[in-house]
Amino acid sequence: MKNHGLIDKPYTLTKDQIDFYSTYRYIKLKNVFDEETLSYFNGIVSKKVTELNAEPKPLDKRDTYGKAFVQLFNLWKEDETIKPLIFSKRLAQIATELMQVDGVRLYHDQALFKEAGGGITPWHADQYYWPLQTDKTVTAWIPLQETPLTMGPLEFSAGSHEIMDGRDLSISDESEKAIQKRLRVTDFKLIIEPFDVGEVSFHSGWVFHRAGANTTQEMRKVMTVIYMDKDMKLKKPSNDGQQNDWDTWCPGVQIGETINSPLNPVLY
What we know:
Layout: H1 15-24, E1 26-29, H2 35-52, H3 64-68, E2 70-73, H4 75-78, H5 83-86, H6 89-99, E3 104-114, E4 121-124, E5 137-143, E6 154-157, H7 173-184, E7 190-192, E8 200-204, E9 209-211, E10 220-229, H8 240-249
Antiparallel strand pairs: 1-8, 2-3, 3-10, 4-9, 5-8, 5-10, 6-7, 6-9
């Protein structure tokens, strides 16, 4: 598949869609990719995930985080054929326009494969793990197949980026309980919807989200790409996760500097 379908073609966002994202800090967009493109990347990403996760630990021997998904990072560095998806101008253009910035860099990518019988992904906010100075971050969540509710699609608490409680919690049983309790006393709408083939969601680093269990016999295959404002600067880490992310995803960058390491190219 030489041209990868829609991978670099512009996507038309409306003012209403940009305003919606600005208010709720998440949006789901239909027809970002066509079935042929997704099927192609499903094949090569699945092959790489199987190869890198050759001997998975049995589900019943894992903690809640471990049961949530098989998680593999920066597949663009592992396989040249996956790189066009991660470097997609179409995705990066959407990320840039939703955040209303001049351009975006890659923070990192990750495959999130929820196995048949895999558990919930607890409530959390991604930016807990990121040593980044501003909230100009967005994650594209790209299901590689149609994702019904029974497979555990991503769920959002619309507008919950305004809540400060729970931002200091890593993904865990504790974060699931504490954030769920906090969200219960707010008016933020809980969005639980299936994903069509080609539908992609975008959510900001501080919006709270979770996913249900995968009660089907099929693997729920998802690729994610995390974008940041191209002018994003590194902040001093405030937890071990942020220190680890600095060392891993922003190698050689100093605190207060623009994050322009070889792992963080400008994508749009």
